[in-house]
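Reminder to self: tokens first, then the designed residues, so the page reads top to bottom the way the pipeline ran.
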């Protein structure tokens, strides 16, 4: 494996970039994309690069942000142990960005026309990038997404849709001896109702990720809040699920209950175009001497958004590793070069 590839992975990991703090890594990637021949534009901290080439353009999709706060690197610095490289954001998706840059170098002069879009807030739903992402997707033949593969290296042809909600309850404060509407008790009842919507056998998943409310054990809390993540594998499930989530009526009539959608991504259902992309990737991988499998993911990505515009999407073309969003996050060093060569082959010939 070229030493420059793992060196670039390390450099990108060591530029910490939690959502909202991506300017430094955006500048570094913009410079690198210009160096390999891209016509680079900046939209705030989002980055787009266009490359000349043959035919209808492909869309390459990645993101600059990670879930790790500034200072995490000092606690968990980049390191290599055997075939594993560790560091905050390495799997999701600093190594994927390095793979893409290597693939651009390998395919230079012999590839399809290309648009490369990097969102600065994908971990928060790419809310501020939607307009630019839609523009990049317009007229694209297919989209290749740099999210990590499964730990076994599988590519992803479908993803669950998701929506994030903020549930808030207002009661009234007072001494615990007083009979007053209790916001924490009400939100607990609401959460039980919402968790009853969970249907894993149908691909519907409901998770309560955060609860906040109250001040002391002997004070009736006047406010409580919860953040929810709701997922579904099929587009047909989403309208009824959304209606059920939003149909909040208080158990205690003395409380006021509100729930609002924070952001959402539609399901990315497996399409004929995605199947063709995967078959082509499988053929390229075999020619390179390894196998790739196909998988579905319960997680969402910008591929969900692009797929909603009718663009065929193949996801999971980034690093092979595991522990994304966990302190154990890692990539397999030995997989970096083969994955770059696979992506380069798709940039030359995606099968469309």
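Designed residues (352 positions):
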């Amino acid at each position: 494996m070229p030493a420059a590839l793992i060196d670039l992975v390390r450099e990108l990991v060591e530029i910490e970039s939690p959502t909202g703090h991506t300017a430094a890594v955006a500048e570094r990637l913009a410079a690198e994309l210009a160096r390999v021949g891209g016509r680079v534009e900046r939209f705030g901290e989002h980055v787009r690069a266009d490359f000349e080439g043959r035919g209808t353009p492909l869309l390459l999709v990645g993101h600059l942000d990670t879930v790790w706060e500034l200072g995490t690197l000092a606690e968990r610095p980049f390191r290599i142990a055997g075939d594993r490289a560790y560091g905050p954001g390495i799997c999701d998706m600093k190594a994927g960005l390095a793979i893409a840059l290597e693939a651009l170098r390998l395919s230079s002069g012999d590839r399809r026309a290309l648009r490369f879009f990097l969102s600065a807030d994908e971990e928060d739903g790419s809310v501020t990038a939607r307009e630019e992402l839609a523009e990049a997707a317009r007229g694209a033949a297919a989209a290749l997404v740099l999210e990590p593969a499964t730990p076994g290296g599988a590519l992803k042809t479908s993803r669950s849709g998701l929506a994030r909600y903020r549930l808030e309850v207002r009661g009234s404060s007072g001494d615990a001896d007083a009979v007053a509407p209790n916001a924490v008790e009400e939100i607990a009842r609401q959460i039980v109702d919402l968790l009853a919507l969970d249907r894993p056998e149908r691909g519907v998943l409901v998770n309560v990720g955060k609860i906040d409310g109250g001040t002391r054990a002997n004070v009736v809390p006047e406010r409580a809040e919860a953040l929810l993540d709701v997922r579904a594998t099929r587009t047909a499930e989403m309208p009824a699920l959304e209606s059920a989530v939003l149909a909040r009526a208080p158990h205690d009539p003395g409380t006021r209950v509100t729930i609002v959608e924070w952001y959402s991504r539609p399901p990315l259902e497996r399409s004929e175009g995605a199947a063709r992309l995967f078959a082509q990737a499988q053929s390229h991988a075999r020619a390179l001497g390894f196998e790739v499998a196909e998988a579905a993911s319960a997680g969402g990505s910008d591929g969900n958004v692009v797929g909603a515009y009718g663009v065929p999407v193949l996801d999971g073309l980034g690093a092979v590793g595991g522990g994304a969003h966990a302190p154990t996050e890692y990539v397999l060093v030995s997989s970096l070069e083969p994955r770059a060569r696979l992506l380069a082959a798709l940039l030359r010939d995606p099968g469309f």
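The domain at 161-265 is CATH 3.30.70.360 (Alpha-Beta Plaits).
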